[in-house]
């Protein structure tokens, strides 16, 4: 308990600024996932399995990772009952449900004759947007792509990195930029998400050329010259790393 107390009161350093949370676990703190697993094992997991699931009329499931979770219900009436009970259950332990991130979504398999999944909603979980789409064989399947905010954040981060490190030697820039792209593919490289990976790859190339072109006002990096650089320093291309 003393160690947890020290951890909670240590504060969080972001971009050189130290901040302290007024209550609870700090956003982005290392202790946050650990405490979430301890709390929610009793507050959510056991409660759902022992009290909620036996009372539902249809089938249901719970998927949780740290403090993010998805509850699926076969029947809408069950989903509304769970949605109504969740805030009450969390408030008993001094916890709250995020009002903007928590929502009720219809996510059923579309009828065969339906041309698009427009009548179905989508939801974000662990950085991916889940949605229904047709497979190559014409069957409805659940696909995943990088969530829009995560996609924008990744592109912005790469652009900012190229700006701040444009004066480093080309070899060093290439090595670090390659590590960043491989790290991105390692997490987001799943089937049906190749287009989003390609966008991040192209953004890295655009950002690299743009800021190389501005590190010396006297000499501009022409496109032909930059293509030669890309030939000598080949950035990792998008790859599907996981099959799920």
Topology, please?
Blueprint: H1 2-9, E1 12-14, E2 17-19, H2 31-52, E3 60-65, E4 68-73, H3 76-91, E5 123-125, E6 128-134, E7 140-146, H4 148-164, H5 170-188, H6 194-212, H7 223-232
Antiparallel strand pairs: 1-2, 3-4, 5-6, 6-7
Task: List the keywords.
244 residues, alpha+beta, three-stranded antiparallel β-sheet, two-stranded antiparallel sheet, 7 strands, 14% strand, flat
Order of helical and strand elements: HEEHEEHEEEHHHH
Shape descriptor: flat
Q: Could you tell me the mean pLDDT?
A: 88
**Care to count the β-strands?**
7
What does this protein look like?
The protein is 45% helix and 14% strand. The protein contains 7 helices and 7 strands. The protein has a 3-stranded antiparallel sheet. α4 (148-164) packs parallel to α6. The radius of gyration is 23 Å and the shape is flat.
Summary?
By secondary structure, this protein is an alpha+beta fold.
């Amino acid at each position: 308990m003393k160690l947890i107390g020290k951890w909670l009161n240590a504060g969080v350093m972001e971009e050189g600024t130290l901040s302290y949370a007024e209550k609870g676990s700090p956003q982005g703190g290392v202790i946050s996932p650990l405490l979430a697993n301890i709390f929610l094992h009793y507050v959510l997991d056991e409660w759902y399995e022992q009290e909620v699931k036996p009372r539902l009329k249809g089938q249901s499931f719970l998927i949780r990772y740290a403090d993010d979770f998805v509850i699926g219900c076969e029947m809408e009436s069950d989903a509304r009952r769970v949605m109504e009970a969740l805030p009450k259950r969390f408030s008993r332990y001094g916890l709250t449900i995020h009002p903007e991130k928590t929502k009720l979504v219809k996510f059923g398999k579309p009828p065969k004759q339906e041309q698009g999944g427009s009548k179905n909603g989508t939801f974000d979980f662990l950085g991916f947007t889940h949605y229904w789409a047709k497979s190559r064989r014409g069957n409805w399947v659940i696909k995943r792509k990088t969530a829009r905010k995560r996609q924008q954040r990744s592109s912005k981060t790469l652009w900012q990195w190229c700006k701040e490190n444009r004066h480093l030697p080309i070899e060093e820039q290439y090595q670090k930029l390659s590590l960043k792209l491989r790290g991105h593919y390692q997490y987001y490289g799943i089937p049906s998400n190749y287009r989003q990976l390609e966008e991040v790859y192209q953004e890295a190339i655009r950002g690299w050329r743009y800021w190389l072109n501005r590190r010396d006002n006297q000499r501009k990096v022409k496109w032909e010259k930059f293509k030669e650089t890309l030939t000598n320093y080949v950035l990792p291309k998008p790859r599907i790393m996981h099959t799920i």
